[in-house]
Amino acid sequence: MPGLSKVLFIGIDAGDKDLILQWAKAGDLPNFNRLLAGSAWGVTQSPVGLYVGAIWPSFYTAVSPARHGRYCYKQLQSGSYDVQRVSPRDVQAEPFWNALSQAGKRVAVIDVPKTYPAELENGLHIVDWGSHDPDPVGFSVWPESTACEIQEKFGVDSMHSCNAFRTTSDEFRNFRDALIERVDKKTRLDSYFLEQGDWDCFVTCFSESHCVGHQCWHLHDKHHRKYDPAMRIAVGDPLKDVYRSIDKAIGTLMDKAGSDANVVVFASHGMGPHYDATFMLDDILRRLEGEKPARFKRQLASLVTPVWKLLPLRLRKLARPLRRKTRVRLGVDQVDPTPGQLACRKSFSIPNNDAYGGIRINLVGREPKGIVSPGEEYEALCKSLCADLTGLINVTSGEPLVNRVLRSADIYQGRNAHLLPDLLVEWNRSAPVSEVYSPKTGTIYGEYKKCRTGDHKPEGVFFASGPAITPGEIKQPVSVMDLAPTITSLVGVKLTGVEGKPIAAVIGDS
Questions:
Q1: What's the pLDDT tens digit per position in 63-121?
Q2: Coil, helix or strand for 359?
Q3: Residues 6 or more apart from 90 whose CB is under 8 A from it?
Q4: CA distance 416 to 65
Q5: Is this prediction's pTM over 0.85?
Q6: Cα 261 versus chain centre, distance
Q7: Half-sphere exposure of 464 (CA within 13 A, CB side)
């Protein structure tokens, strides 16, 4: 095991492994190419089926979502049918920087996603200065007195959220330029604090790769259904531009850290086209429980509309809430089901971001008004749903809609496993989805109406370089939970009570 040494950790939030390796080898990302040549590096595996929302908590706690309890920005609340937003403070496991601080190490943590300011002894923690999908609390710092200094020297994030519909070349160019400017500001902020203290562990993260991947994948991917050659000529490839700026930042920070530092760079989970059917999943489940095709309900709703228009305006205003409830009950409006509606179902969709669908079984003894009994009935329903879902066809491509359906209980065990979806639906993301069919469901239509054209892939990549680290590719994928124990071991602190293990190729076998 190497002697006690300093660690610089750089996170690349949703940096795509394949693009990084491709562009590094082509010379477009010289500092990633430098890492390839001088690091132990390899592919990382994320929490299966839950990686979009669980990736960063699983990284910094070194335990799975069945232990730390966080897998989505909104989750079904235990013992209810209510869905509520999840705060970083709801993560039920300690981040590794707490253990370092308690061991007397000097630690700085800047913009790691889905965290809250830890009161680090003789340390620094900056949250959501410039990150993707910041927590509603927004920018916050420990110690609190540092906030004014940061705002005076580096300003605040003017973007806040990257989610927006953009249609013109000017809008996409401005968006790209704003992300590059934020990378430059973050680099200056990191450099300022990196130069200030004798840090044992300095942790920072760039999220601009996440933002540009979601919003501009169609400008990069020539096979995307929204790819526009004229727009590509006018704007270029925003992904490559932003990745280049991050690559430059990595070089700057590595140089400032010095040749005696251990450097760990982690691109968390990748990007690809936003082709999935999560937005249709609850419609599919309702149809599998015998609900009539939506076209009949829409016909019924259309018969009521002429009568509605004949009513005096005063009566229409009074009756509007009742009409709205009726349309929701008929499935005419695309809105989330109410808790009362979910209580009457055997299964229903629950939030799990979009890359995988999440299904909850309305289980007796777990849900307030459970319908499905544990044991044989539960097992039979799960088996039936797996068969029905894998039997669906994406009419656009003629291919199966679903690659596979996973049982969470087969993958995850822990005190918070009861919070997870029962079934995880892995979509076949080879083509866009707007029409699905099976003999059991008939044809179901849907439309993805949000602004994102890119969405996540499960694999990431990491690089670890240092005086005692032997360069070379690590052939076996490592878990994201292994990174924190590796970082703490490089600083001379053993992380206990976690699921992850130090990476032997980085710290040695001892």
A1: 999 999 999 999 999 999 999 999 999 999 999 999 999 999 999 999 999 999 999 99
A2: strand
A3: 69, 70
A4: 7
A5: yes
A6: 30
A7: 27
